[in-house]
Amino acid sequence: MRNVVVTGVPRPPLDQLDELARFGVATVHEALGRIGYLGPRIRPIQQGTRIAGSAVTALCWPGDNLMIHAAVEQCGPGDVLVVSTASPCTDGLFGELLATSLAARGIRGLVMDAGVRDTAELRAMGFPIWTRHVSAQGSVKATAGAVNVPLVVGGQSVLPGSVIVADDDGVLTVPAHELPRAIEASRAREAKEQITRDVLAAGQLGLDRYGLRALLGELGVEYVPYEQYLAGERRNV
Amino acid sequence: MRNVVVTGVPRPPLDQLDELARFGVATVHEALGRIGYLGPRIRPIQQGTRIAGSAVTALCWPGDNLMIHAAVEQCGPGDVLVVSTASPCTDGLFGELLATSLAARGIRGLVMDAGVRDTAELRAMGFPIWTRHVSAQGSVKATAGAVNVPLVVGGQSVLPGSVIVADDDGVLTVPAHELPRAIEASRAREAKEQITRDVLAAGQLGLDRYGLRALLGELGVEYVPYEQYLAGERRNV
Amino acid sequence: MRNVVVTGVPRPPLDQLDELARFGVATVHEALGRIGYLGPRIRPIQQGTRIAGSAVTALCWPGDNLMIHAAVEQCGPGDVLVVSTASPCTDGLFGELLATSLAARGIRGLVMDAGVRDTAELRAMGFPIWTRHVSAQGSVKATAGAVNVPLVVGGQSVLPGSVIVADDDGVLTVPAHELPRAIEASRAREAKEQITRDVLAAGQLGLDRYGLRALLGELGVEYVPYEQYLAGERRNV
Amino acid sequence: MRNVVVTGVPRPPLDQLDELARFGVATVHEALGRIGYLGPRIRPIQQGTRIAGSAVTALCWPGDNLMIHAAVEQCGPGDVLVVSTASPCTDGLFGELLATSLAARGIRGLVMDAGVRDTAELRAMGFPIWTRHVSAQGSVKATAGAVNVPLVVGGQSVLPGSVIVADDDGVLTVPAHELPRAIEASRAREAKEQITRDVLAAGQLGLDRYGLRALLGELGVEYVPYEQYLAGERRNV
Amino acid sequence: MRNVVVTGVPRPPLDQLDELARFGVATVHEALGRIGYLGPRIRPIQQGTRIAGSAVTALCWPGDNLMIHAAVEQCGPGDVLVVSTASPCTDGLFGELLATSLAARGIRGLVMDAGVRDTAELRAMGFPIWTRHVSAQGSVKATAGAVNVPLVVGGQSVLPGSVIVADDDGVLTVPAHELPRAIEASRAREAKEQITRDVLAAGQLGLDRYGLRALLGELGVEYVPYEQYLAGERRNV
Amino acid sequence: MRNVVVTGVPRPPLDQLDELARFGVATVHEALGRIGYLGPRIRPIQQGTRIAGSAVTALCWPGDNLMIHAAVEQCGPGDVLVVSTASPCTDGLFGELLATSLAARGIRGLVMDAGVRDTAELRAMGFPIWTRHVSAQGSVKATAGAVNVPLVVGGQSVLPGSVIVADDDGVLTVPAHELPRAIEASRAREAKEQITRDVLAAGQLGLDRYGLRALLGELGVEYVPYEQYLAGERRNV
């Protein structure tokens, strides 16, 4: 690990981030061909919040939040702070005081690959957080790390300045240069989904709408009446 | 795995399902002698919902939801769709569009042994879901599986046409022919628990009500005053 | 395991417990030098509740809640029941009837290192619970254990008569003789945090307030402009 | 759970079991269309052992091995004892003394969905074991369970009298009436694999042998030279 | 956590440790009434080694092995070093160089609640290790901890100067003042087990030897012939 | 995920790979400043093997090994195949037939972030494997993925053409342009460790050799005699 704080990372335009924030994680993920989802273990501590922002990254030593303090200075309006550790860590590296600092700088939220604490206060503040763990265990400030270097979180590479989208389904990272395409493709997908939704609500089946009946036949799936199936199975009891 | 869609699975009477739905999972589980609980890992995405329905089952390949589409056609009013995968899978095989389809057919909920997505929308729709994972990661439709075959979910065999009961404590499967007994036994247990509740609220101890004092004695449990116990323990520090 | 029920465990004064209950788990944990946190796996089933009480402990055999019944009799106003098992167990050893008993005796809550059930009813009752698992699976009453002996829960030794603090961040055990110091140190910490909070909200950085800039320098952390960093990294793709 | 000991379970012929034992778990699993694999968590405590036998099943309460003792009496030459618990359990429910009993009755091995102990002695005895856990923690004999009822182990239903195959890849259950087909299909698969092995060893690619080149094309997989790919990716750093 | 190095911890007599080392973990655990087993997650990196020694304890910060170096100085012949961390950690806090130091001082082995590395070299040296993780990830030396304070490892309190027994079944801690009783009780248990082993090898059943037939009857366990059981079950398919 | 097979990835010189293979994972990891370790969950199925090679990467859909077949064609002498899946997967995507193909092409080993099967045969062949899971469950060939794109395995980004080092401590990825420095730094570290080893074997303490005594003092670590410490602790029982 090179111990650096990278400064001056370019950000995507705020209005484009705001535009993308209207769409959910699942929609953007699909629209872009399924890249960058941080997986099912990074979960929100609140319900019903949806954000988009520009990633500022911090890589900490386990049990140590020194580099989060260094990262705060690199954060500005529209940013989302993304924190990981050099090896797995459950400790509460982030709490209400750091959130106060971030909120004062216009930061939109935190993605934490370790733990957070003061969760009641954080919810009361309305500061949105997605985290792997909740833990009251605090940290030291003794070992160097890095700020605004590429991280790996939840099986994905997260680049500084990339776009973060987060909601109740989890967290997504989108390459910055894909932001315009993400907006356009999400808009198109949403429109298409609205039509599909109406059709499905009216009773058409996905089997027919997506042309899956033929596929089932090609794959050799047979339709068998219950009594006939049961007769075969009873031999196995 | 035989690649079949079993049709015409018989359902338990809707009024009996409605009757059973009044009781909680823990009550029915106890009333029937502790069979069929799908374990502590299948959790609701909503709070305070209690349902009962008839199981339609779908067995998918990991990362593939083709058979869920085939299963929708086999679903009708009062059913609960139960989905498992051929090996462990965290992906979001089910989302808001499939829920729209199911809701249009009168289905009461979903039990998912993999993952779901669009959780904010699903809660907003009021479509009840119990799931092992929440994940925005989507699926393909490429590999055959089966519909309405016996599944294993959470260490239990779930048969098509069996009764599913679900609430904040998790999910239960009850053999269809046990439904009348389940209602009767749950009603009896509830009545008995109400009496016990009143007695305990009035201050009687379980030790006395359940006759456990004698058992403690038979098992050799001794009552020891604190100072005496402490004197013994201090030798160990 | 010695099969004993230890009686007459001394309790800390109720007014001091009430005083400590005003502070959160993270605050008390820090104030006392980070001792006794039961870790990130014991989680509340409710949100926004904060309690403090005196520990009554019960050690059960897996799948068996006999000793919880023995423990109830040892519980009184201001107590918190803490339950562990001789080996890991997910079963629902505690439900609404036991909560009715405890509530009738003025107990403030339950900390469970196995599972609980009837969670909807327990939330409706307003009986606060922190637990490792939620499970409808019930228990037997067949094997001896112990009441008011030291337990290990979440990597911490929990002594009978010690102070339990619990909120959305988890559960803390504090030695009884530390209670006055815990109150004083928490009060001091809260006051100091209020000042820090105001300063951070006004925009001062933790880097400056905590004197961390010098430390970053000593540890060899370099500040590198983005373009320069990128030039180095591009060699690695 | 019904508390029964089912007696007189029919066994498959010993010579057919011996015949099947020649093939590995992966081969039989494939030959039968991928049914009945007990998953990656049930692991051998020894290396290089391969067995086949007839399942005798025991369902125990967690922390309790009473029903293993009841099951021993139902075991005979060629059998494999399969043990599960009513809820997850890591305890060592089986050790060297029980293995001595089983070996004296001609039993071929143990499949344990909880824990075993005395592993050094068991390896020294040459008694083959597949288990979820190794734990020195012992058990009580206090609560009823069942013998020779269907179990669920590792996501599979295991019927008494079914065929168990086990080796370094794990454990497989095969319906008894499928045993002749399992032998025949495994033999055919082994022969086919020997030809494939020779061809692959001689350098032919699976892409060509299995006709996968065309599939890659249909699925839209493109071949891209490294420098061209790199040029695209560098935009993302 | 108080940051102390406790010196001059009294040790049990070496000849008694040697005497206890003859018995396995499971035997001593049973002989003493099932206390102090460190659970199924602390596993040996070698096979077939059995040791007993006196515990020297070290409590480290996650990712930091400073206190192991401080602990080495407190170690002498017959000791076993037991290391834990303030929160869960997978890093390799211990490797071949530290083992060289310990071996030079006559230490008998290491019990590690985090990770070790250089496992090939450690096996080649014949230095016995029980550990939760194997990881090449190294550590810093920056944060204080403690030496020879009570630790919690695997759900057990481990006191400095207590007796550690370890073999293929895991690790056990025995209070120092129990060592003579442990030897005597293990010897008695071993003798009794030898008789039981001979009887079981000769074909007597545990059901008869331990008087369990009557218990099965009292618990209501019924014996049911296979065909009769099957008739009942067939209704459920 | 872009569905591509990247061809013509440049490889590091074979003689440099051979040179690096002499050093262990832990040594190279330290020598390079602790980058690229794939973590404690990717474990060898054999013991005592150490390799280095050039990474060919394959990204598969869960339960599908189509892209491994496409990757084989891109492999040559000195390569190590590294396989990951789009979401977590335990299935046996790789077995003895694929190993036969790879061995015929001079490949040095496999790193698998899902599962392998035929482990007994693979050990017998002497084909080295590091894997997250062992599972007999086979795969389909139905869904596109990618070959020689960057993967994330065990929290690290693995680039095609990077250097893989693997032994009993796990797996390391080293950027190709760092290979000469890795060799030199590992050689230097090994030499230095030999001196340290001799000194430690002769009895010098790490406390003195690494100058840690002063650090302990600065951090406020106190040395306390046992009796004095005990007197303080006894108040807590």
Structural commentary:
6 copies of one chain form a homohexamer. In chain A, 34% of the residues lie in helices and 26% in strands. The first copy, chain A, has helices at residues 14-21, 25-31, 66-72, 96-104, 119-125, 179-201, 206-209, 212-218, 226-234; strands at residues 4-7, 43-44, 51-60, 79-85, 92-94, 109-116, 129-134, 146-147, 151-153, 156-158, 163-167, 170-174, 222-225. Chain A has 2 domains: 4-176, Ribonuclease E inhibitor RraA/RraA-like (Glucose Oxidase, domain 1), CATH 3.50.30.40; 190-236, no CATH class. Chain A contains 9 helices and 13 strands. The first copy, chain A, has 237 residues and is of the alpha/beta class. In chain A, helix 1 packs parallel to helix 6 (179-201) and helix 2 crosses helix 6 (179-201). In chain A, the strands form 2 sheets. In chain A, strands 2, 3, 4, 5, 6, 7, 8, 11 and 12 form a 9-stranded mixed sheet that branches. In chain A, strands 9-10 form a two-stranded antiparallel sheet. At the C-E interface, loops of C face loops of E. Strand 1 (4-7) of chain D pairs parallel with strand 13 of chain E, so a sheet runs across the interface.
